[in-house]
Automatic annotation (TrEMBL):
Coiled coil: none annotated. InterPro entries: Ets_dom, ETS_fam, WH-like_DNA-bd_sf, WH_DNA-bd_sf. Belongs to the ETS family. This is Transcription factor etv6. The keyword Metal-binding does not apply.
């Protein structure tokens, strides 16, 4: 599966949560405080590219 592509993930908030759950994407987005649901976008442009790659591919 191409980088940034997550199966069965159509909504941005769900996509973000899936990325946060996968340590391969910590260079883009990571938890600051998982219990409080606080996260940091480390690389906004990279995260936007991942989302674009995800949305371009057919579901």
């Amino acid at each position: 599966m191409p980088i940034g592509r997550i199966a069965d993930c159509r909504l941005l908030w769900d996509y973000v949560y899936q990325l946060l759950s996968d340590s391969r994407y910590e260079n883009f987005i990571r938890w600051e405080d998982k219990e409080s649901k606080i996260f940091r976008i480390v690389d906004p442009n990279g995260l936007a590219r991942l989302w674009g790659n995800h949305k371009k591919l057919p579901c």
